Amino acid sequence: MTRPAARGGSRASADRLARLLNLVPYLLARPGIELAEAAGDLGVTERQLREDLELLWVCGLPGYGPGDLIDMAFDGDRVTITYDAGIDRPLRLTPDEALALVVALRMLAETPGVTNREAVERALAKIENAAGDLVAAPVEVRLPADTRRVAELRTAVESGRALRITYYTAARDETTDRVVDPLRMLMVGGRAYVEAWCRRAEAVRLFRADRIDAVAELEERAVVPPQARPHDLTEGVFRPSPDLPLITLRIGRGERWLTEYYPCERVEAGGGDQWLVSLRVTDLGWARRFVLGLGPDVAVVAPVELAEQVRAAAVAALDAYASPVPAAPPVPVGGPDPARAVSPADPAVTAGTQ
């Protein structure tokens, strides 16, 4: 129920910004014009025009002192601009500026989480129409993600219906089927996410687009419970908290990138080139797979449980490599038995092929 109002508010703000940018050149060309006449020319009420003029009084150049802000003089119901702060004519873009703005708007239009894509697309169409051949260069804008899947998810979210998704959860290394009620799509750290009320978890969850293996729209409308609240993502998707497990790793020089890529609670210099790094993780299962995927310059210091899990997994992997592959049964002299012939796609054959 709030989305149409939000779009209307965004559109009203955009319309007011365009009106303010045109208002100063308009008044400069008509010093001493009556407010009623100006309001009629601009298609607004006199009250709205007065509010726009009051806003212009606090607009201007960096520094924002008395000599930097737009200034005007009133004589009864007449107004005259006395300082324009450089807005003395409509904006004119150079070819490079127009192209840069078009590319930025195209990227913005493709970014999940833009609340008013229609406004972006209208602005883009106006600039492209005004610039003409200046922006006709073959520039293609693509986000660093699976654009087909992102477009599919965005269409599904905008439909306002509940979705059935098949989702891979990296923290538990499992794939589950869920029914979700979408709230929004957004882009964080170069990755696209669907934020939705998950009926399975009975909570708001973030689902990475590249981990959604399948999505289907349901006939029922999405119904988000009143207690559902969007996440605060100003500091990123993962927000460490004291209740999460704390792990400590000893890392070499080649693995110091961890301290820049992951939020660490403590980084201390160890012996030689080694560092001691402590960070919070969602659970020890994820931490075990995380450590196993790193290089040989990483060792688990704490907790002991995690060190034992990593050691056990490493030993099991070495044992698997040490076990000889069973030899294939001998082929009869007259060729294979037709009754036991199998196709190359037979699981019994492919499973034993390395």
TrEMBL record:
<dbReference type="InterPro" id="IPR043839">
    <property type="entry name" value="PafC_HTH"/>
</dbReference>
<feature type="compositionally biased region" description="Pro residues">
    <location>
        <begin position="326"/>
        <end position="335"/>
    </location>
</feature>
<dbReference type="Pfam" id="PF13280">
    <property type="entry name" value="WYL"/>
</dbReference>
<feature type="domain" description="WYL">
    <location>
        <begin position="150"/>
        <end position="215"/>
    </location>
</feature>
<dbReference type="Pfam" id="PF25583">
    <property type="entry name" value="WCX"/>
</dbReference>
<dbReference type="InterPro" id="IPR057727">
    <property type="entry name" value="WCX_dom"/>
</dbReference>
<feature type="region of interest" description="Disordered">
    <location>
        <begin position="326"/>
        <end position="354"/>
    </location>
</feature>
<protein>
    <submittedName>
        <fullName>YafY family protein</fullName>
    </submittedName>
</protein>
<dbReference type="InterPro" id="IPR051534">
    <property type="entry name" value="CBASS_pafABC_assoc_protein"/>
</dbReference>
<dbReference type="InterPro" id="IPR026881">
    <property type="entry name" value="WYL_dom"/>
</dbReference>
<feature type="domain" description="WCX">
    <location>
        <begin position="248"/>
        <end position="318"/>
    </location>
</feature>
<dbReference type="InterPro" id="IPR028349">
    <property type="entry name" value="PafC-like"/>
</dbReference>
<dbReference type="Pfam" id="PF19187">
    <property type="entry name" value="HTH_PafC"/>
</dbReference>
<feature type="domain" description="PafC HTH">
    <location>
        <begin position="15"/>
        <end position="128"/>
    </location>
</feature>
